[in-house]
Amino acid sequence: MILLRWLDDLLSLFYPKLCQACGKSLFYKEEIICLQCKLHLPKTGFHLEKDNALEQFFWGRVPFVRASAFLYFVKKGNIQHLIHRLKYKGKEEIGIYLGKLYGKELIQSEDFRSIDFIVPVPLHLSKLKLRGYNQSELFANGLSESMNVPVNTTILIRQKASETQTRKSRFKRWENVKEIFTIENGEIFENKHLLLVDDVITTGATLESCAGILLKIPGVKVSVASIAVAGL
Q: Is 199 helix (H, G, I), strand (E, B) or coil?
């Protein structure tokens, strides 16, 4: 144990491991984010609160069984830094790590313990090739590990590439993702409870579009979870 710690410290001198949230050096056994940042994660607690603010946000739009987000998103804060590094800096491990953390919390809720499949919001093939990975799928994989629920990436398909949602109004975002998703061989989802997963919820337009397609499958129920939520 002492030898392993010594080797870890030695490697850190040449290849320092930094907290992906604040940028400070990680100590022994710290992973992805430092203990200080982990203790101060701005958690929503929505998974333990029925009719929470996010669920109310979707009232009249999508009949989700439950809606939850792990963290509150604040511009220029540590959570924005984490998600930016996940989406644009190739830090795939962030998505898996946050998913594992949140999965441990979601299974405290009876509603989320009834999930049959985790379904990440898909990227169009062109964007997937450009980025190399789907950040929502990485988050889903982390959730899967903690919740012991399979991830399905083959049924919900993004059939058209959409423009970036940045700086678009709520209506424009909805128009941007309208009718761009489709279902292939959806029979496996019949009478199942799905957890639809995205990285950040802003206007909810993408999730609304995905859910509208999934809810056409006979007997399907849909809940939603994200890494973060903005604007609530």
A: strand
CA distances for 13 relative to 4, 8, 17, 27, 31, angstroms: 15, 9, 9, 12, 17
Of 195, 221, 231, whose CA–CA distance to 63 is shortest?
Answer: 221
According to the model, what pLDDT value does residue 133 have?
Answer: 97
**3-class DSSP state of 213:** helix
* Cα 99-100-104 angle, rounded to 5 deg: 110
User: What phi and psi values does residue 215 have, to the nearest 5 degrees?
Assistant: -75, -5
- Per the CB < 8 A criterion, the answer to whether 120 and 139 are in contact is yes
Three-state secondary structure call for residue 225: strand
CA distances from 206 to 15, 18, 98 (A): 39, 33, 21
pLDDT (0 to 100) of residue 132: 94
pLDDT of residue 165: 47
Task: Name, in order, each residue with C-beta under 8 angstroms of 77's C-beta and a sequence gap of 6 or more.
Answer: 42
User: What six digits make up the tokens of 197?
Assistant: 């997963």
Distance of CA 75 to the CA centre of its chain: 18
Average pLDDT over residues 198-216: 95
